[in-house]
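Posting here for the record, re: pyridoxine-5'-phosphate.
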Amino acid sequence: MKTRLSVNVNKIATLRNARGGNNPNIIELVKKIESYGADGITVHPRTDERHITLQDVYDISKVVKTDYNIEGYPDVRFLNIINDIKPEQVTLVPDAPDVITSNRGWKESDLNMDIKSIILSIKRLGSKVSLFIEPSISMINFALDYDVDRIELYTGDYARLYGDNENKIIDKYISVSEYAQKNGIEVNAGHDLDLENLLFFKRSIPNLYEVSIGHALICDSLIYGLEKTIKRYLEQLK
Ligand code: PXP
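Prediction output follows.
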């Protein structure tokens, strides 16, 4: 099965914000990313707007032709955005507002009935809901109980061990993905995936539905150019 590539464009906004103008132009780059074959665009608006701004989220929603994935912690501000835009996919992450980047997925101790009813309200808008989780069977059971469509496996731990001990850590991701598939939940993955560690992950998880990649892909495009970089990632996801 082909795995879809959603490009997280936060880093493009970070670069633009460094100078305060509109270079690079994120809207033009979203169009290019789609024209080079990406299957989706991801944004993660944070309250301090240090990369993607609220305005960006709305501006991108007007041009995006592929699947729009908006991720974030489900506070009131985030839910208002989701309500307005009704993107194809909403990925819920457990981040505290001050973290530099998502550094873990949901754990059992984070979940409560509020999250369950939020998930239901997002699903009623017609958006697919994905829960960014630590790779564990018990989190899949929560995902089932909470009736999410997809889970996104946090791959930071995998990426850290890749090159050293990937055969050991991959077993956990495989068993969790198989269990999710058996129970009708689609499997996404993301965080610190790159051209080095992606192929092994993809080959190990045959039912991998989508990866969301930002940091490494934008860094690679400084070397190879955006078009060639996206094609290299797509090649690995075939
Ligand atoms: N998935 C989620 C839920 C994230 O929060 C992030 C980072 O914003 C990513 C994927 C992409 O991670 P990276 O930038 O390391 O590719």
